[in-house]
Specification:
alpha/beta, Pyruvate-ferredoxin Oxidoreductase, domain 3, Rossmann fold, six-stranded mixed sheet, about 35% helix, disordered C terminus, oxidoreductase activity, acting on the aldehyde or oxo group of donors, oxidoreductase
């Protein structure tokens, strides 16, 4: 059967997706594939889509290859590596017309299992493994390396690059090194002998092959520059170290656990004294409630402390978060968001905790949220959150998600000014107390809503205060008087308003053409949004964009909305949570904010965004744009 469409042709710009079974050992092989292309100087953006069980269920690994540097998901697949019979039909359906299907053809499949507009490449991986290896586990693991070798021949990936990566992976484990390299060449040599170098008359008619490989090719480039390849969780953990955190209390929960584990690794290197003694405390608590309680206690005592969790953890922490808000204790909470509600989809990504965190706890509460877009900002915002928590004496949330946290991403190198000092905010010293300065723990002394605090033990008989979650007067004395309560609640609002100028400010990107419409986005939506804007421009649709990086929203966000006829709000949840915040905080007519919502648990794609906006906006004529 000959494909009805010409094979796709593209160099350094395509999408490869691996369909595997969880627990099969494929993750390291797929990562090896992505890193090999990266080492050739071509930007890649891999995403691991895996189930929450240990093994047996489907898992996918998608690699975006883009010399232009697009790091968001594009949408669609150009080459599907179909290694899971359970998901065959769905995987086949994702392939772009003219694209490629790579599969293990050890067992023949009927013609009905293929598409006539897809080029099929079969390699008998199981047959080769069975003939080479006797151990069942070796057969499975080496089959993964074999398909990497086969793909290296088809896509023209440099073999020495892959061999070097294998060498790094198995450094000190020489017994494993050589067998993996041999498996790599088994797959590569089979493709070269039976497909690429075979007589053209004997090549499979469906393969779309030439002696150079398939129409998708990797060519050496210099498009990576000085960028680094790192997970957001590791970046945030390092940001906490540089930001001065010495206490982390946490409870394991996907997808945030690796953040606490990375923090522990970094502390063992950077948070020890000259004798190697720990100058940090990392506690795996019995549950999320205990972990946030420990962090609140540490913050009250003057330590820089944080916890990391996901949506279910936020739900459990709610009462302690309210205590920290009302007692005004610095706390940093890193929420690596996942699919909800309840257990939801623990290993899928969403931006679905926005409202839960913005108004966490009962009563009238408002919390500071930071929205990083990549690992670089995870590093920066984690450190900034610790400063903001101290400065504002309040909980501060870093709202990352699984897509950023657990996937490796190219980003700018981290930077840190060694002359930077930590912002501890309004902390009254023993000397100031001896000078006769008034200490009223909950009194606004200069109009910013932020009172002075002291560290426990600052002075033997001055400046002490008792912290509780009940109402009090400015001197921290228990009071249920209405005026005292109102004073305190209004002061907390003033403090929240002060935060507008302290949080990371939004970033504006204006269209090359006058634009009547705008779009607001945030966090992990940004890479796909960047590409979607170019797609829309190609369709004649001009759009200004604003990337919101924090809540409370600075006044520039309201100005952006007011400057446009309508504004699309792009987010990854069902209920348009950021849009709801905008309406609630600014009193905006909801009709002016158009929700673009993606919430199936996979990262949003540029194709989804551009198609959703295009469906609402027809391309404007030049006369309309000028008018």
């Amino acid at each position: 059967m000959t494909p009805s469409l010409a094979p796709l042709q593209s160099t350094n710009d395509f999408v490869v997706k691996f369909a595997n079974v969880n627990g099969s050992g494929s993750a390291s092989a797929n990562e090896l594939f992505a890193k090999a292309i990266l080492r050739m100087g071509v930007p890649v953006s891999p995403r691991n889509i895996f189930p929450s069980n240990i093994q047996g269920l489907p898992t996918w690994y998608e690699v975006r290859v883009s010399e232009r540097g697009w790091l968001g998901r594009r949408g669609g697949v150009d080459l599907m590596v179909a290694m899971n019979p359970q998901t065959w039909d769905a995987d086949l359906a994702e392939i772009e017309p003219g694209g490629y299907l790579f599969y293990d053809n050890s067992k023949p499949l009927p013609k009905s299992k293929f598409r006539d507009d897809v080029n099929v490449i079969g390699v008998p991986l199981t047959e080769i493994c069975n003939a080479t290896y006797s151990d069942p586990r070796q057969r499975q693991l080496f089959k993964n390396i074999m398909y990497v070798g086969a793909l290296s021949a088809l896509l023209d990936i440099d073999v020495p690059v892959i061999e070097a990566l294998i060498g790094e992976q198995y450094k000190g484990k020489e017994k494993l090194l050589q067998p993996n390299i041999e498996a790599l060449h088994l797959g590569r040599n089979w493709v070269r002998e039976h497909l690429l170098n075979a007589d053209p008359s004997t090549r499979p008619p469906m393969a779309g092959l030439s002696d150079k490989g398939i129409g998708l090719q990797v060519r050496k480039a210099d498009a990576v520059g000085d960028r680094i390849f790192v997970e957001g969780n590791a970046a945030a953990a390092l940001g906490c170290v540089y930001g001065g955190a010495t206490v982390c209390a946490w409870y394991p929960i996907t997808p945030s656990s690796s953040l606490a584990e990375a923090f522990q690794k970094y502390c063992q290197k950077y948070r020890v004294d000259d004798q190697g003694r720990a100058r940090h405390a990392i506690i795996q608590a019995e549950d999320e409630i205990a972990s946030i309680g420990m962090v609140v206690g540490a913050g009250w005592n003057g330590a820089r402390a944080f916890t990391t969790t996901a949506g279910p953890g936020i739900s459990l922490m709610s009462e302690f978060i309210g205590l920290a808000y009302f007692a005004e204790i610095p706390v940093t909470i890193i929420d690596v968001q996942r699919g909800g509600p309840s257990t939801g989809m623990p290993t899928r990504t969403q931006q679905s905790d926005i409202l839960a965190c913005a108004y966490a706890s009962h009563g009238d509460t408002k919390h500071v949220l930071l929205f990083p877009e990549d690992p670089r900002e995870c590093f920066e915002f984690a450190a900034a959150a610790l400063d903001l928590a101290d400065r504002l004496q309040t909980p501060v949330f870093v709202m990352t998600d699984l897509d950023i946290g657990m996937n490796q991403r190219l980003c700018a190198p981290f930077a840190w000014d060694d002359a930077r000092s930590y912002d501890r905010g309004k902390v009254m010293t023993a000397e100031q107390l001896d000078e006769g300065r008034e200490f009223a723990r909950y009194k606004d002394v200069d109009g910013d809503g932020i009172p002075y605090r002291t560290y426990p033990g600052t002075h033997p008989d001055k400046g002490a205060y008792f912290t509780r979650g009940t109402s009090r007067n400015p001197q921290a004395q228990y009071s249920e008087r209405g005026p005292d309560y109102v004073y305190n609640m209004q002061r907390l609002l003033q403090k929240f308003d002060t935060a507008r100028s302290l949080v990371p400010q939004p970033l504006l990107r204006q269209s090359d053409m006058p634009a009547r419409h705008g779009a607001i986005h945030f966090g992990s939506t940004s890479p796909a949004m960047d590409e979607a804007i170019e797609r829309l421009q190609e369709r004649g649709i001009a759009l200004d964009t604003l990337r919101v990086r924090a809540f409370p929203f600075p006044d520039s966000v309201k100005a952006f909305i007011d400057a446009h006829d309508s504004v699309f709000v792009v987010e990854q949840n069902r209920d348009a949570q950021l849009r709801s915040l905008l309406v609630n905080e600014f009193g905006i007519d909801p009709a002016r904010l158009v929700a673009v919502l993606h919430y199936d648990g996979t990262p949003i794609t540029a194709r989804f965004i551009s198609d959703a906006i295009s469906a609402r906006l027809r391309p404007e004529s030049r006369a309309e744009r000028v008018a």
